[in-house]
Amino acid sequence: MPASARRRWAVAVASSVVILATGCAATDGVCPAIGYLSTLEVRVVGAVAYVDDIVPCVDDACTPEGAASELGIVTSPPVRGDDTWSFTGEFPEQMTVRALDAAGEVLADQEVDVTWTRTGGSEECGGPTFGSLTLEI
User: Fold this and answer.
1) How far apart are CA 107 and CA 38, in angstroms?
2) CA dist., res. 58 & res. 120, Å (int)
3) pTM of the predicted model, to two decimals?
4) Which CA distances in Å does 61 have to 55, 96, 98?
């Protein structure tokens, strides 16, 4: 191969390596295709002993635990502590949280606008969030 052809071939290969290396580098503005979940912690104060369940609702429609809903609420079954219920899932901006007794009677019904705090990910791409509220019985 003549020297001029080798030089053109070397330039073409070097240019290709630069283009490929640039294409493989992490670029700003590209976010992973991950659906981040939120954690909602509901702390009950007052007659906690009478509370059998806490349910998130939109308008007057409530989501049973572990259900996906057309309401924009998707949760896994809550983790219950002494006076807290922690839900993991997706939640709308505004909702109502209800406390129910063992017979399904409503003990408390509170409209909430939860302030969510990002707990991971990035400002650009989002990430998992945490929100908490207090429900008084």
Assistant:
1) 25
2) 27
3) 0.71
4) 10, 9, 11
The count of other CB atoms within 10 Å of the CB of residue 48 is: 14
3-state SS record for the chain: CCHHHHHHHHHHHHHHHHHHHHHHCCCCCCCCCCCCCEEEEEEEECCHHHCCEEEEEECCEECCCCCECCCCCEECCCEECCCEEEEEEECCCEEEEEEECCCCCEEEEEEEECCCEECCCECCCECCEEEEEEEEC
The answer to whether 52 touches 105, Cβ cutoff 8 Å, is no
Please give the Cα distance from 52 to 69 (Å, whole number): 21
- pLDDT lower than 50: segments of the chain: 1, 3-27
> Do the beta carbons of residue 134 and residue 45 sit within 8 Å?
yes
* Interacting residues of 117 by C-beta distance below 8 A, sequence separation 6+: 129, 130, 131
Q: What is the pLDDT of residue 64?
A: 63
d(CA 19, CA 23): 6
